[in-house]
Design brief:
- The protein is of the alpha/beta class.
- It has one domain: TIM Barrel (Alpha-Beta Barrel), CATH 3.20.20.140.
- Helices cover 40% and strands 14% of the residues.
- It contains eight helices and nine strands.
- The chain has a six-stranded parallel beta sheet. Strands 1-2-4 form a three-stranded parallel beta sheet.
- Strand 7, helix 5 and strand 8 form a beta-alpha-beta unit.
- The chain is globular.
- The two termini are 17 Å apart.
């Protein structure tokens, strides 16, 4: 009973599923590896992945849900967005226009720019002071963040979402080493696919889950994601361990 909190399965909105057919193929793949739902997370903000408006995301989500229902699928697709940490985020936060994980929580999925971010800890703290909880997307791929910075963020209530593929080198050897180091240090809380297409995903998802173990998968892709959607506090989101 796993829930994917970071994936790009909505059809024709960003750099993920190009059309409804591909979106359905991606959902079928997620189902094959054990996911029963997803909080689909189209890019939102001024980042390179695009800026999908909330109304556009809802239309795509409704289209996908209708197609799944027609197929007799019980796969659940919830609201979400991958917010890019930039000027637009701050403007939309001030206007109360951010899209939370699951649609009813105070949790935000935030993506950092690929380059260095000035005072990133202060920026995330500013988001937290506005009443939001932060789930940071794929920090193991943000080379400007060292483990000490990540550890301080965790101490201050930020929770970390690692890419499942990172643990088996999908994004490179350095990303694999960083993901495994974070796991060993108790700095990973959520496991997500960040799926953009089917491609070879079945192979690396299977390999990664085998390496991580059932316990890590249950907590990181099941218990913790569901708790976040239910608006659990950061203290209730425990780090995962391999096995």
């Amino acid at each position: 009973m796993m829930l994917d909190l970071h994936c790009h399965i909505l059809p024709h909105v960003d750099d993920g599923a190009a059309d409804l057919g591909e979106a359905l193929d991606m959902v079928r793949l997620l189902g094959q590896v054990g996911f029963t739902g997803a909080a689909a997370s189209p890019h939102h903000g001024g980042g390179p992945g695009g800026d999908v408006a909330e109304v556009e995301a809802k239309q795509a989500r409704d289209q996908l849900c209708a197609a799944l229902k027609a197929e007799g699928s019980s796969f659940d697709v919830l609201p979400n967005a991958e917010h890019y940490l930039g000027v637009e985020l701050m403007q939309r936060m001030a206007a109360g226009e951010l899209i939370t994980i699951g649609g009813k929580s105070k949790w935000l999925l935030l993506e950092l720019p690929w380059g260095a971010v000035v005072d990133v800890e202060a920026v995330l703290f500013r988001v937290q002071t506005r009443g939001y909880r932060v789930l940071l997307a794929h920090p193991e791929r943000s080379m400007s963040l060292d483990l000490e910075v990540i550890e301080r963020m965790v101490t201050r209530g930020v929770r970390m979402q690692a890419e499942i593929g990172s643990f088996v080198g999908v994004y490179g050897d350095e990303e694999r080493q960083r993901a495994r180091s974070m796991l060993q240090c108790g700095l990973v809380h959520v496991l997500a696919t960040d799926l953009h297409s089917v491609g070879t995903a079945e192979k690396w998802l299977t390999q990664a889950f085998s390496w991580l173990g059932d316990g890590a998968a249950e907590l990181g892709a099941g218990v913790n994601p569901k708790a976040i959607v239910a608006d659990a506090s950061a203290d209730d989101i425990e780090p995962i361990v391999r096995g």
